[in-house]
Amino acid sequence: SSSHVLVLVCCADHRTAFDAYQRVICGDAEDETEKALNLEIYQFSRLLRECVEVFGTELTRSPYDVFYCGVRSVDSLMFSSYVAHFNAPMLTTPSIESALISVPRGSGYILEFTEYDSRITYFDLTWLSKDIAQHSLLFNGGAYPLRLVNIRQIALEKNYKFYVSALSVLDTVLSGQRPNEKPSKNDLSCIDAILKKEKKNLSVYVQNLYEYFTIYVKRIVLNFYWFNEYFAPLKGVLVRSDVDNMPMVSALLGYF
After folding, report:
1. What's residue 66's pLDDT?
2. Tens digits of residue pLDDT in 137-165
3. Relative to the CA of 58, which of 32, 92, 129, 243 has its CA 20 to 30 Å away?
């Protein structure tokens, strides 16, 4: 409908309005003022979510397998989960060049996401934008998760893929869910080193990413079928290597 097109145009070409909307939708759910503001934008939120989840493109039919999101922030970005449901609207792009343009020069972060559940949908805003160089894909709703696999820190010209990818694999291990792909040897060796704190020269930011993640680990589910199939090299780290299907409870308590 014309109402759906209107909210999509707001997202595609009116970044200030979209940022203001994000601040409201991501506010404190217990704050009465925030509740009132959310009530005012209810119809906008409903239309936007319908655009993505009803009229969007599933990742099974998508030509893209990587999605970049520019974050304009001078603060350190921390994440409680690396396989996460993003309920608020999130603008991404399949082009890292477009993502770099979206953040202030010399600051900010570029987040890199990949598929975790192919049923998730996005809406391609490219055809609605007056900027022919802009290629925006909108995620909204959080029905299915995305996997965060890399963080680039623009100001320091740092790429944390080695560690972030490992943390996303660790998040999958602790959830007990079926992995969407086989982890690399580097991921598994990095998990071992991070948990045992043996990795030398870890930056303060990487250490903080891990410490912040552990704060939010409230429940551990080890599915031994998937563990033995995908994560066998972590025997002796999370589960006992001398006894089948036996978690190392004391080690887990020490890690998390």
Report:
1. 94
2. 999 888 889 999 999 998 888 999 999 99
3. 129
Residues 181-194 pLDDT 10s? 899 999 998 898 88
User: Rounded CA gap, 59 and 123, in Å?
Assistant: 11
| Contact by Cβ (8 Å): 184, 192 | no
Looking at the DSSP assignment, which residues form a beta bridge with residue 115?
Answer: 146
Residues 6+ apart with CB under 8 A from 162: 186, 190
Terminal-residue alpha carbon distance, the chain: 49
Please tell me the distance from the alpha carbon of residue 239 to that of residue 235, in angstroms, as a whole number. 5
* 57 band by pLDDT with thresholds 50, 70 and 90: very high
Tokens of 96: 């890292």
Helix, strand, coil abundance in the chain, percent, nearest 5 = 45, 15, 40
Q: Which two three-digit tokens encode residue 232?
A: 């066998």
Residue 183 and residue 34: Cα distance in Å, rounded? 41
- How many residues are given for the chain? 256
The identity of residue 36, as a single letter, is: A
Residue type for position 194: I
Beta strands in the chain (DSSP E): 57-58, 66-71, 83-84, 90-92, 109-115, 121-124, 137-139, 146-153, 158-159
- Distance CA(74)–CA(33), nearest Å, equals 27
Residues 6+ apart with CB under 8 A from 116: 83, 144, 145, 146, 147, 180
Interval 84-113 mean pLDDT? 86
Q: Residues with Cβ < 8 Å from 60, sequence gap 6 or more?
A: 118, 119
Q: Please provide residue 71's backbone torsions phi and psi, each rounded to the nearest 5 degrees.
A: -120, 120
